[in-house]
Amino acid sequence: MIALAAQQQWHMTSVDIKTAFLYGELDEELFMEQPEGFAVKGQEHKVFHLKHALYGLKQAALQWWKALDKSMECLGFRHTKSDSRIFILTSSRGPCVIVIVYVDDAIFMGPDRHFTNRKKAQFMKEWDCQDLRDTKEFLRMRIHRQGTLISLEQKDYLRMVLERFNMHNAKAAPTLLPQGYVPTPNKTPENPKRKSHYQQVIGSLLYLMLGTRPDIAFVVTKMSQFAANPSEEHLCKALYICRYLVGTADYSLTYGRSRDGIIAYADADWGSAHTRRSNTSYIVLISGAAVFWQSKAQKTIALSSTEAEYMVLSDTCRQLVWIQNLFGELCINLQSIPLCRDNQGSIFIASNAVQEKWTKHIDIRYHYIREVVESGKVKLYFVKTAENYADIFTKNLSRDKYLKCRSTLGISFKQNT
Questions:
Q1: If you average pLDDT over residues 323-342, what whole number do you get?
Q2: Are 205 and 241 in contact (CB under 8 A)?
Q3: Residue 42: which domain range?
Q4: Across 168-194, average pLDDT
Q5: Which of 266, 284, 216 is nearest to 385 (CA)?
Q6: Residues 104 and 59 occupy one common structural domain
């Protein structure tokens, strides 16, 4: 949605909802013991009958969403079926105001600054909120707006991670991993202390990767596969990733550099050395930068590179269909979304509903791509391997090719301000 705001030049403003979970009314009959130190004298044997949700209750989040949904409906909004956290107020000309709510944080965005601020003011009359004015931060991601560009970065979080693992003064590394390095399982007995340290490093990097750093997606997910019993070498390579981040701490994910719309790339690396499961990877670009990316091992073993690539196409198109559904609810009609591949065989199978002896064993769920292509929702294009930028999520690339792929993700240097 932030990428869309950059492309459409929407105004963005935020609020923080105070004690959000306490607003939900409970449907179930729940009782709670009197908190220690707050028991009513002479009635210590009694319990509280809860009427409203409390932080820590399993029902709290759902009950808060129900209360929020009812309130937004009174203000003229409706939640989208594609994502219940997004509320929209529309007119005959398209979306007027879009609201993104995550727990107790909300972003109001729309083409008309005054109308958007007016709806935010109405919302703040319903709930006790702190007005954060123009959006500067969301989910621990810093948001910088300069002209037509919107940048996301987690520099403060990254600095905290590097200091936690004593890597803030480490020498910067030019690549994520040494060129040619392929991790292998550890055959030695488990070391609990090393395992805990390793999992903390990888877990911290995973949060960074999911937020604003798609450039580290492959190596972090790859190294996470060895978290059950890491070796000393695995730990050294995890810290090597931190060295790369030392040198790229001031990089951010920037939207608005391109007006090309949506384009997707997909790729697969056939047959892992130790599990034989191929690696699925794809990237979706909007407004010149990545909005969705994935790098993970496939759930089944592919018998050929074409089969592995075919399964990647199916996984990618499901994400693209969801984007089309969401944009449709936002009154933004999309034509066929281009999906680029570097394997002619997988494109042929996806575009031709034929039964061949080498494809009839493929799980039926992967043939969904044929229906999507036939309906025109996704259009497949062949590109050369050197121009398939999803390759950055499949293997440990050489520095030159890695930098070329990284530049297409929207990752760019941002000077300190």
A1: 90
A2: yes
A3: 2-139
A4: 90
A5: 266
A6: yes
